[in-house]
Amino acid sequence: MSRSNSYIVGFAATICVICSVFVSGAAVSLKERQVTNKILDRQKNVLSVADTEKFTPDTLKAMTSDEVDQAFSDGIRARIVNLETGEYVDDVSGMDANTYDQQRALLDAALSHEAPSNAAKVLRMPNHALVYQVVESDKVTTLILPVEGKGLWSTLYGFIALDNDTTTIKGLTFYQHGETPGLGGEVDNPTWKAKWPGKKAFDEQWAPKVNVAKSTSRDATYQVDGLSGATLTSRGVTYLVQFWLGDEAFGPYLKNFRETGA
Ligand SMILES: Cc1cc2nc3c(=O)[nH]c(=O)nc-3n(C[C@H](O)[C@H](O)[C@H](O)COP(=O)(O)O)c2cc1C
Question: Residue 97 and residue 90: Cα distance in Å, rounded?
């Protein structure tokens, strides 16, 4: 039985409308869950660098969202830092560290500015950054700073954790990137991430020095083994870490922290 052209076009159009209603309905109804999962993933990443021994990949995988929330509120404090002055602003400006969205600030010209030319290819910077602190008996033991920058294919977003001496690295993790799995994507490999704790971020003059090296020398104080077959992603990691630890970004904050211990 042959159908008329208008029947075929009408049939195809009806199927398209029904499918698009399903797809957009699913996207809208799952939006909230996507946002919640994104926040959960960020929190897990913060925990993973806050205490690499306690929050191993397996432990974090097994934790429910309530347990992650609990671990987060038990030991982690969020603070907002003015990047230019390096001072905390959440206690003076009415900004709330629990709701401040540093990524959203980048979209607002009043809350962000053009980044100075840099090797990490960061184009815009927020005026205020959200940092996390591990607090034990009222003492800050670890600083967790957001970092981002270009790899080969994508922008990598992550956190670097520093001991309260502000130079000993406790961990580095990325919660979002689009590098190739098995090559640049190995930035997520726990074996590679385990090479970061203990490295020193700064030299004696407090210039950022830690780097991902193709071949590490005997004095590997500042060097982390490169990712094989992924020299460009490795280089990107060096650039982004050094940029965010430098004077243009968290330098003033880290200097203040060293001087005041808080
Ligand atoms: C399909 C494909 C995907 C690649 N993905 C990456 C990547 O994610 N990161 C990276 O640095 N290099 C990647 N490369 C390799 C780069 O093009 C380049 O050859 C490499 O970074 C050089 O690293 P090497 O000196 O360690 O071999 C990819 C290459 C191909 C063909």
Answer: 6
